[in-house]
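Project outcomes to date are best conveyed with an example. Our students and postdoctoral researchers have been running inverse folding experiments weekly, and each run begins with a structure described purely in tokens. The record below, which covers 190 residues, was selected by the lab manager from last quarter's runs and is presented without edits.
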């Protein structure tokens, strides 16, 4: 299937994790993965095959709203990161972030939340330079805008290239939210 071949090639070319390399150099707070070397490469390959099947099957049924889109993409995050990260690796940090979210919700009246799929460290190589506590709001906005842009692309008001460029730029260049493997370590194609 052409979709699976392109998907695997893209992942293999862009992901250090798919090559069996667990890289924590983006932050001293980033925890190592449970596996490394050939074990890591095999686990990522297994997860990728499951993700390809799930993405292909779900591609036949478009999400009905931004919430459904978010649920689908978070499911894909869970699939690609299955058995790679200790579920308690960031437990203490998430507790601290949740306390901060509670405090900020009380002070501002806004619904601050913490998503355990998102990074717990601040990175300096994105345009927005978002702190972990800000990721939930940024991603809510991203999903709403992405959903609207998909609808515009479906009606011919926006090209597929513009849509894909937006999604890639926001996730890798501006927000960079994910705490896991492949989205976190994606490298640009040569």
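After processing, the design step wrote out the following sequence:
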């Amino acid at each position: 299937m052409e979709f699976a071949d392109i998907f695997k090639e893209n992942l293999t070319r862009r992901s250090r994790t798919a090559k069996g390399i667990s890289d924590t150099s983006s932050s001293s707070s980033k925890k190592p993965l449970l596996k490394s070397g050939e074990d890591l490469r095999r686990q990522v390959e297994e997860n990728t095959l499951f993700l390809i099947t799930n993405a292909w099957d779900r591609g036949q049924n478009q999400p009905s709203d931004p919430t459904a889109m978010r649920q689908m993409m978070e499911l894909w995050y869970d699939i690609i990161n299955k058995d790679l990260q200790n579920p308690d690796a960031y437990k203490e940090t998430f507790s601290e972030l949740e306390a901060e979210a509670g405090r900020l919700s009380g002070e501002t009246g806004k619904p601050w939340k913490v998503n355990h799929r998102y990074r717990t460290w601040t990175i300096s190589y994105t345009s927005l330079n978002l702190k972990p506590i800000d990721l939930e709001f940024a991603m809510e906005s991203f999903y709403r805008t992405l959903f609207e842009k998909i609808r515009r692309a479906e009606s011919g008001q926006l090209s597929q290239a513009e849509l894909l460029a937006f999604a890639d730029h926001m996730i890798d260049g501006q927000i960079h939210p994910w705490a896991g493997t492949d989205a976190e370590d994606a490298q640009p194609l040569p």
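Residues 43 and 118 are 21 Å apart (CA to CA). The longest helix spans residues 37-59. The training component of this project remains on track.
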